[in-house]
Amino acid sequence: MNEAFSDMAGEAAEFFMRGKVDWIVGADITKSGKGIRNFPNPSKHGGSIEHIKDYRNGMNVHYSSGIFNKAFYQLAEVKGWGIRKAFDVMVLANQVYWQRNSTFEQGACDVMKAAKDKGYSVADAKAAFTVVGVGDSCKVDPPDPTDKYKPLQSGAGYCLTASGNAVTVSTCNNSDSQHWLLDDQGHLMVKSVSNSCLSVGSNPKRGNQAMLSSCNNEDYQRWQFSGNVIQNVKDSSLRLTSWGSRNGARVGVWTSLNNHPIQQWWWKN
User: Fold this and answer.
1) 167: enclosing H helix or E strand
2) Which residues are catalytic?
3) Are 245 and 230 in contact (CB under 8 A)?
4) Which positions ≥6 away from 136 have C-beta within 8 Å?
5) Which of the listed CATH numbers 1.20.1050.10, 2.80.10.50, 2.10.77.10, 3.30.360.10 matches domain 150-267?
6) Alpha helices, DSSP H only, in 34-140?
7) By the 8 A CB rule, do 242 and 154 touch?
8) What is the mean pLDDT of the chain?
9) Whole-number pLDDT of residue 147
10) What's the pTM value of the predicted model, to 2 decimals?
11) Is the separation of the CB atoms in 239 and 228 below 8 Å?
12) Is the pLDDT of residue 146 over 50?
């Protein structure tokens, strides 16, 4: 896992510098241009493996790294993820969860925990590891509060409220129109209206107002927590924002206001 993480960091750096990746380690420093390791198909480079069934105790780490390399590739290729998000969860897993003696199975479970912590899809992370034969035993609690609907309160003290198809903030009153659920795909759904998800239009832009619309699988209807900030998955620079610190203010998306209370949210018990 440690060796694979180094390879992932290399691809993340390549993406940062070039805006794209070739999914090959060392393509630029080998005469053939074929590199030394391949993310989508690790076994293309002699000795590397891409499934846990091929692992043997004592195997060279440059070969066994193919398992996590391929899982990283699978996750990054999922719609709505990409290199940045996939590397985010690997970094968090490495910083917080992975231990010196972690197994591949434990490491995969830890990546799923990191996905949960980031508000990303745990199901997507698990599916990526299923391809390489690990993670089947992982049981990760879904993001709070998928077990039940709860009020979502802004830093200004008002609760996110469904008002017909419009979305506002208003005085917290514990009504169904103020109880929301974040599912493991990132949809924010309100209890008072069935099959309706928080949306800011199919082409989110700064200043778009939030509304309820029929749930679908598009990224513009998916949200993720980053601390107490709620970001739109299609454009993570856009944050759920109330238009002012007053009862009845409309809600929409705006770019960062440097931790202003109108862009802060947390689940209210």
Assistant:
1) strand 166-170
2) 62
3) no
4) 105, 130
5) 2.80.10.50
6) 61-64, 66-76, 82-92, 104-118, 122-130
7) yes
8) 91
9) 53
10) 0.56
11) no
12) no
